[in-house]
Write a structure and sequence with these properties.
binds 2-phosphoglycolic acid; 37% helix; globular; alpha/beta
Length: 247
């Protein structure tokens, strides 16, 4: 792998700010000598405030609004996140798409706003089990990429997370061939859209854990992981970071 792999922990609506702070502190102590991996923590919004963090550890947010400010009750702007030293923002997670009606159009606005503020979006894409069973996985992924990235000039600061919906939080990981094929396909779509770019990380997400990390990180085209459940536990998250660091 010629890019520094990324291990991203999406805590979703878990951990209070003080629990999160303690967790980050404990991870820093448990894996003090990380040279080849970037580790990104994604607490809920209140947990982003007053966190001091240094590379190889970074802070990310789980969402944002695309407008700078205004009458958008319950929303958070990119500037607010920047003041908390957020560098990465997850956009279009399948839970946001499915539970909060996000679509490719507002996802696209968010991606463009994040890039214009010089932060880094992690665009999540992934098919349902129905798409996969009907042979529509590639069409669906292509559509999410094309519409999500419409009007984006460069993807050098973008990260893509391939997260098959049926593998998220289910304990059912996609198999090696499925992951290899999807990453390869995503890469080929990106090559067509952005022939000059080969910088874009493609992460895998969906029931990544301490047992499967060793195998998954060997798959060509996998540049790291977006992890939900296993990122909440100190021992599992630390051992995943260690596996990725050593491979
Ligand atoms: P999971 O979640 O690791 O618990 O499957 C992944 C994600 O939602 O990003």
């Amino acid at each position: 792998m010629n890019k520094k792999p990324i291990v991203a922990g999406n805590w979703k609506m878990n951990k209070t700010p003080s629990q999160g702070k303690e967790f980050i502190h404990d991870i820093e102590k448990l894996v003090p000598d990380i040279q080849n991996t970037k580790v990104i923590f994604f607490p809920a919004y209140p947990g982003l405030f007053d966190i001091k963090i240094n590379p190889p550890f970074y802070l990310g947010a789980q969402n944002c609004h695309w407008e700078d400010s205004g009458a958008f009750t319950g929303e958070v702007s990119i500037e607010m996140l920047r003041e908390c030293y957020v560098e990465y923002i997850i956009i279009g997670h399948s839970e946001r798409r499915q539970l909060f009606n996000e679509n490719n159009n507002n996802i696209n606005k968010k991606i463009k706003a994040i890039l214009s503020e010089n932060l880094k979006p992690i665009l999540c894409i992934g098919e349902t089990i129905e798409h996969r069973n009907s042979g529509l996985t590639e069409d669906f992924l292509q559509n999410q990429l094309v519409e999500g990235l419409e009007g984006v000039e460069s993807i050098d600061d973008c990260i893509i997370a391939y997260e098959p919906i049926w593998a998220i939080g289910t304990g059912e990981t996609a198999d090696k061939d499925q992951i290899y094929n999807a990453h390869n396909f995503i890469n080929s779509v990106l090559k067509k859209l952005y022939p000059e770019s080969n910088n874009c990380h493609i992460l895998y997400g969906g029931s990544v854990n301490t047992e499967n990390t060793k195998d998954l990180i060997q798959i060509s085209g996998v540049d790291g992981f977006l992890i939900g459940g296993a990122s909440l536990n100190i021992d599992s998250f630390a051992s995943i970071i260690n596996y990725v660091e050593k491979n």
